[in-house]
Amino acid sequence: MANLNKVFLMGNLTRDPQLSYTPSQTPVCELGLAVNRRWTAQDGQQKEEVTYVDCTSYGKQAETLSKYMKKGRPIFIEGRLKLDQWEAQDGSKRSKMRVVVEGFQFLGGPDSRGGEGGEGSAPRYQPRTAPQGGRPSAPQNDDAPPPVSDDDIPF
């Protein structure tokens, strides 16, 4: 039987990205994402729930996210689920589900990035379009960071 582990999330950052480096100097960026769900209940009341998701990015993607993203800014993330397991200091077993970022798209207009142009502002990306054969192509933009290949991810 075939397996599939793919996640698509669109939401806002809950905190500024945290960039760190592994001992081998691989960039690692930790992100918190809030994804809202709104619906109308059977009684007609508007309901809302928020799901908070921890995400991790590696390599050049990590550096790009750290450079251009800030708390509250919207983003589309494509990735896979990963279960982290460890033993706490008190001996109890702990686990946490997270998303490993395999691709992303900046969302929103100039207001969501704190203004247009200037140092530190995010590049504008064109919408991704899927070529014949399926997989979306990378954004085409002279100001955009170079595309990240699978070779940039250390696993």
Structure, described:
The chain has 155 residues and is mainly beta. The protein has one domain: Nucleic acid-binding proteins (OB fold (Dihydrolipoamide Acetyltransferase, E2P)), CATH 2.40.50.140. It has 1 helix and 6 strands, in the order E-E-E-E-H-E-E. The protein has one helix spanning 59-68; strands at 7-13, 18-21, 27-40, 46-58, 74-87, 93-106. The protein has a 5-stranded mixed beta barrel with strand order 1-3-4-6-5. A hairpin with a 5-residue loop joins strand 2 and strand 3. It is globular.
Average pLDDT rating: 80
Distance between the termini: 23 Å
Derived from helix and strand composition plus strand pairing, the structural class reads: mainly beta
Q: How big is the Rg?
A: 18 Å
Q: Architecture, according to CATH? A: Beta Barrel
CATH class identity = Mainly Beta
Domains (count): 1
Q: Kindly report the CATH topology.
A: OB fold (Dihydrolipoamide Acetyltransferase, E2P)
- Per DSSP, what share of the residues sits in E-state strands of 2 or more residues? 35-45%
Query: Overall 3D geometry?
Result: globular
Number of strands: 6
Largest sheet: 5 strands, mixed, barrel
What count of helical segments does DSSP give? 1
Name of the CATH homologous superfamily:
Nucleic acid-binding proteins
Largest sheet strand order: 1-3-4-6-5
SSE arrangement, N to C: EEEEHEE
Poorly predicted sequence stretches spanning 5 or more consecutive residues: 113-133, 135-143
Measured as a percent range, the helix fraction is under 10%
